[in-house]
């Protein structure tokens, strides 16, 4: 029987990063993966393939709608080769997962393919390609999440689909009905809108992206409406039926009236749920809460002290970078170090165009907690760089403590917001004030100048360019 210092179950961003950090710290490490490729949901059917399709569809939309304004002209019709678009996405995924294979080999991590389940607290049964039982002094559960659904919906994976199937369709839908106005529904909805589909987003709440700052929700919906997406807010879906190639979705609107939608595809994107099936957690006395999450303490230890859990399978935002940070924290804790995570500073991003990004507290949270704050906001359209690239939608908003000027939250929508948010995270990690950012030199012309201008606006309303 092989013996390890650490066994990691699940090879997504949390799992493989945890394994690498454990190996770097001198621990003999095994990575257990039930599928045939490493990388988990993010690399195989999530972050990476969705961004590939977002980029491809963005190029098509730009060529179709904006190139002529740049003086770029085509002879003949611009056409979509949808198969090539999907093939390119698959090639990006393949290249990325092969990169994880290389990292495992480089760090001398044993990769064991098969379904890992607990025999007891120190023994793991593996069933599959590398069937065996191993002994692990410590185990990290990193099994991630899977798409959630509603109890009355039959996801047939053909016409009624999840994000997994939406990334490998054989045709462009005529009318895609999206149930859920969160990150996944909006990103994939924008992909297919660009490719010519009619897209209808049905959201139960009274706004899209309900957990983000309401200002971002309003601006993103305004922009996506302009792009052609139809939104139906405060609609509770209560029936989804398939008749041949037609999907009928029935919902109740805020007046109590029944509304019916017809399309050829229905994307169910109502969130994700922790994936613990098959782990046999009972054998290791691991506690699971009512939401299906593995219960952990501040050190990410489960109710069995030598077993840890990270990422989507525990409480908190289901984000790849949050899982990575937790994987590093567990590895360093096992090595006797004193790592920490400030969960308030885990950024959240939506990769639509314009991109949406946020870190820290929303205005709604500050108001609910009775925090006295001030606001500085700057529109992207006031930037020379934004006008040069024709990316003028959006804004940057900085929330700062009214007395101390410490930055409490940064919320932005605009070109490259996914990258710009790192400046805000860095500033808040060092507990910077709005004035600190306002006094930093920002390159001109850049999108990042919007962050400086928003900081100036929060500092005695000193914005220069508005």
Task: Give a verbal description of the structure.
- This protein has helices spanning 13-24, 40-45, 47-65, 82-106, 163-166, 183-194, 214-227, 320-334, 363-368, 384-389, 417-429, 434-438, 449-458; strands spanning 3-9, 29-33, 110-113, 115-118, 123-127, 132-141, 145-147, 160-161, 175-179, 198-202, 230-232, 236-243, 246-252, 258-263, 265-268, 272-274, 307-309, 348-350, 355-360, 373-379, 395-401, 407-414.
- The chain has 466 residues and is of the alpha/beta class.
- The chain has 3 domains: 3-147 and 273-341, FAD/NAD(P)-binding domain, CATH 3.50.50; 160-270, FAD/NAD(P)-binding domain (3-Layer(bba) Sandwich); 345-458, Enolase-like, domain 1 (2-Layer Sandwich).
- The strands form 5 sheets. Strands 1, 2, 3, 4, 5, 6 and 17 form a 7-stranded mixed β-sheet that branches. Strands 8-15-9-10-11 form a 5-stranded parallel β-sheet.
- Helix 3 packs antiparallel against helix 4 (82-106).
- The chain starts with a strand and ends in an 8-residue tail after the last helix.
Main sheet makeup:
7 strands, mixed
* Span between termini: 69 Å
Highest-level CATH class of the largest domain: Alpha Beta
As residue ranges, the low-confidence spans are: none
Portion of residues in helices?
Answer: 25-40%
Report the C-alpha radius of gyration, rounded.
24 Å
CATH superfamily of the largest domain: FAD/NAD(P)-binding domain
Q: What is the number of helical segments per DSSP (H or I, 4+ residues)?
A: 13
Give me the count of strands: 22
What is the overall pLDDT average? 97
Q: Number of domains in the coordinates?
A: 3
Structural class assignment: alpha/beta
- What is the name of the CATH architecture of the largest domain? 3-Layer(bba) Sandwich
